[in-house]
Known about the structure:
The chain is an alpha/beta fold and 305 residues long. The protein contains 9 helices and 4 strands; from the N terminus they run H-H-E-H-E-H-E-H-E-H-H-H-H. Bound molecules: zinc ion.
Amino acid sequence: MLMMTRFLKSSFVDTLLALSVVLGLPQFLHAQAAVPAAKLSVHWEELTASDFREGIHRSQGTCLLPFGILEKHGPHLPLGTDLLDVRYAALHAADQEYAVVFPEYYFGQIAEAKHEPGTIAYSRTMQLALLQETTDEMARNGCKKILIVNGHGGNDSLLPFFAQTQLDKPHDYVVYVFDERTPREGGPAKKTKIDMHAGESETSKMMVSRPDTVHLDRATNESGADQARQKIPSDVYTGIWWYTRFPNHYSGDGSVATKELGEFQMKWWIDSVVKAIRVVKADDVSLKLQNEFYEKSTHPLDTQP
Ligand SMILES: [Zn+2]
């Protein structure tokens, strides 16, 4: 009898609980939806361990790796210009379209500026090994879609090579590269034709991201003109090409920079990174076909009809 009472009591309580769950759940969900999701930092290094887990969930495993460098930027901009600019663009983009942003990364290709003070030029093997271990470690922590946002022209060959060679062995993540920094048209009219490094565009962007580091009064202390000293056609490549044209590691004229141009270009850059993050989040093809490719590559003779 006692047992029976206990049984009845417990099944009654269970039924009540079950009913309350069934009836109360929609209300509960509604209450949850009404509360805005807590603000999470986009900075990897500012998240607690459990907030990091929530960040990976919220970003759908999409993480940004803004890629800068330490090199001379004419006579008037700081060594970290590319790092400062690309992080400004990437962090503002991630604020609009949530993604976890990896900390300062500046271990790229800059052999061509080793003759200037303050350049940190890692060896070719170190650049590739460090980048591979960094993306491997990011992926081990849930970043299955890694968008490298490049802020440095000297990486233009390194990054496609890195992405291409992800096919050499299986990875459970995809590397994407976004490598645009400056709109080709629109905005305030530009005053200079040559504008490849520390010139009108880059100086203007720095007047937005870190105006306190820009020394506009020094921008004409050195020449950023093209010295055109190499007499070979442009379709024949050499590593010394940049030095033959711009030995001061300065290309253009930063003195004509304006905040208005910087605001236009930086907004374009941020908007473009936002679009890239959305494209990456929506991409459900690359990893699937990458896996199919890895599998087929283990038995190439069987894949022919
Ligand atoms: Zn730069």
